[in-house]
Amino acid sequence: MGQIELQKVTKRFGETEVIPPLDLKIGEGEFVVFVGPSGCGKSTLLRLIAGLEDISSGKILIDGQDATNLGPAKRGLAMVFQSYALYPHMSVRKNIAFPLKMAGMDQAAIDAKVEGAAKVLNLASYLDRRPGQLSGGQRQRVAIGRAIVREPAAFLFDEPLSNLDAALRVNMRLEITELHQNLKTTMVYVTHDQVEAMTMADKIVVLQAGRIEQVGTPLELYRAPRNTFVAGFIGSPKMNLLTGAPAQAKGATTIGIRPEHLDVSKESGDWQGKVLVAEHLGSDTFLHVATDYGQMTVRVSGEMSVGHGDSIWMTPDQTHLHRFGADGLRIA
Amino acid sequence: MATKASRTAARIMMAPAVILLLGWMLVPLIMTLWFSFRNYLPLRGGDLGFAGFDNYVRFVTSSAFWPAVMATMIIVVGTLVITVVLGVLLALLLDQPMWGQGIVRILVIAPFFVMPTVSGLVWKNMFLDSVNGLFAHIARFIGATPVEWMIEAPFFSIILIVSWQWLPFATLILLTAIQSLDSEQLEAAEIDGAPKIKRFWYIIVPHLGRAITVVILIQTIFLLSIFAEIYVTTAGAFGSKTLTYLIFQRVLESQNVGLGSAGGVYAIILANIVAIFLMRIVGKNLDS
Question: pTM value?
Answer without folding.
Answer: 0.79
